[in-house]
Structure formats: structure tokens, C-alpha cells
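assembly run, all chains below
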Amino acid sequence: MEYAEHLDALPPSREEPPAATTKGHQQHPLGIYFKIWGLLFVLSTASYLVDYFHFQGMLRWTLIIVFMLLKAGLIVAVFMHMVWERLALLYAIIVPPLLLVTLIGIGVLEAGYTFSARETFFAPPPPPAEKPAAH
Amino acid sequence: MTTTHLPIDLDTTQLLPAAAGGWDSVVKDVSSDQRVFKDVPWGKPMMWIFLLSDTFIFGTFLISYMTVRSSTTVPWPNPSEVFGLQVFGQSVPLLLIAIMTFVLISSSGTMALAVNFGYRRDRETTFWLLLATAALGATFVGMQAFEWTKLIMEGVRPWGNPWGAHQFGACFFMITGFHGTHVTIGVIFLSIVATKVRRGDLDHQRPGFLTGRKGNYEIVEIMGLYWHFVDLVWVFIFAFFYLW
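ok done. output:
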């Protein structure tokens, strides 16, 4: 905090320090960490059970994605303190990864094309029991 | 632990001071003189920006995995069976992976507590929590080594495997290997930070090994950001590679 003197010299109305933090330190009641810890355990168990009970189709993908996003959200929001950070920092970090959606789209198109090319020009799909040389 | 029952203030202006500032605060921050993120210690945005670049690396790995998996005409090996374990003569699907997931989540929990106790200047508790985090991380890497050994013995190679699409091995070794490397580096750094905490380097503001800057407990929080990110990446690997 080398620039702390600078900030203190500003008129007090300019920047109110966030209530839950002192000088950028994140300090919150311990209880919230235990709650999130417990929730992460519950969500992990739930996503494991999706596989254990052999859910298939849309139900499987929906449950897996929902549990995954909830877990990721809880970790970033509470464990990494993102809900208490400045909004500018939140946007600077959370928005850029959304670009990956473009790459997913490109990947899907590319994979679809490759798949159809393989089906068209190579031998028809080999039987599932095929044993390729392992080494 | 009586502290676990502390009430949480759900007043949003308190809980989300940034949100209370709204779009105005973003504009002020970004157009401000000298510093963008006011009152945020500089190390935190630096770590976040590094993690952002790491997000793109792991994102690229997972997307290329998606691409090769959906473009192959050969059936993909069933992860539920490939990663199953024999326990008392019964085959339990994905058992090892489930245990690894719980170990990593627990390490994230102890890390979050370590950050909290660090800012309370509770040296002893912070040290033990950091050490527990490092131990859980090392356990995770050990289990991953066991898993790799098992699969390699069964004939999985980056160029082929006995059960189906050849791309399986390449994706598996690349993604879990890169993640395991992150965990390993994290364990090393956790040990270093734990040592600094125990010696009192942060309380007495001793400068670090490679820097003239004074030590303080922000490095525990910054270490925590890295460690939670490793856990975060595992959440996505668990969903996309093991459960898909």
C-alpha cells in the first residue's frame, strides 16, 4: 500500500472503502466458508451420483452442467472473494473468458465437418469391439 | 468451533459493496488516475490476470478435447468403467476420481480458512492450515500418479488404448498432466508460504527471496487465489472428462 497516503489525501467523498474490507483485505465470518465447503461436498456427491445411477441423455448433461456451474460459481464468488471485489475487477476477469464460447462454436463446426468427412471418405465406422494395437 | 455459527449479514449493500457502487464505480475505476482497482493490493489483480491467461490455456485444452472426441467415428472409451476401481470384489465406477475430488475440495476449504486466520495474525493456525492444504494437494498428486500408473499398465498410450478411440490417451495425459503440474507447483508454493508464516516473515515485514518488497499477509490470499483456481479447473475436468 505504498500509495495509501495519496488516497487518504483525496476528499473523503470520492471513494468510500468497501464495508466488508479494510484496505483491500478480505475478512469475512468463518461460517460462510464452512457453509460453502459443505455445499461443494453436496454438489460433488450429487454429480457423482449422476454417473453412479447411470442417468442418460438430456437429464445427465443438464445435471452435470448445472452442478459444475454451481460449484465453479461458489468457488469464484466466495472462496476467491469475487462477490466482495470491486465491480471493475470482476468485469475485467469474468468477461474475457466468455470469448471461449466463440472457440467452442468453431470447435463444434470443425468436429462436425471432420466427422462427416471421415464417414464419407473412410471405411464405415468399425465395430465397437475393435481392438487397436495398444503399443 | 463457536465461530461457525456467526450470523451472516445478508444486507446486499454490505455484502456486495462493489455492486452497490454499480456501473458508476466501474467507470470511475477504469478512468481513474494512477490505479485502476482502487484499494485492491496490486498483487491480487496480477494473480487474477495470470489466472485469466491460465483459464484460456485450460479452456483451449478442453475445447480441443471436445473437438477430437466429437469428430472421431470410433466409440470413446467409457470413463465410468475405465476409471472404476475393484473394492472387495465389487466394481465401483469412478471411485478414485470421486475421492480425488473430495480431497481437492477439502484442500480448498482449509486454504480459505488459512487466508482468514492469516489476516487475524494467527500465525500458528495459519501455518497448520497451509500445511494441511499442501498435504491434501500432495495426496491428490499421489492418487493421480496411481491412476496414471494403473492406466499405463493397462495399455493406455497417447496414441492408442485397448477400448476405443485413439485420441482418449492423448487428451487424458495432456489435460490431467497439465492440471497435476499446477497442483504440484501449488504444493511447492504452499510449503514456501507456510514456512514464511511460521518464521514470522509476514508479521515482521521481512522482504522475500526475490523481491525487496515488504512481506505481508496479502501473499496468503494471493496464494489462495492460485489454489482455488486449481480446484476450479478440476471442477471442469471432472464434469467434462470423467462424467461426460
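The first helix of chain A runs from residue 4 to 9.

Chain A has five helices and two strands.

not gonna interpret more than that til we talk
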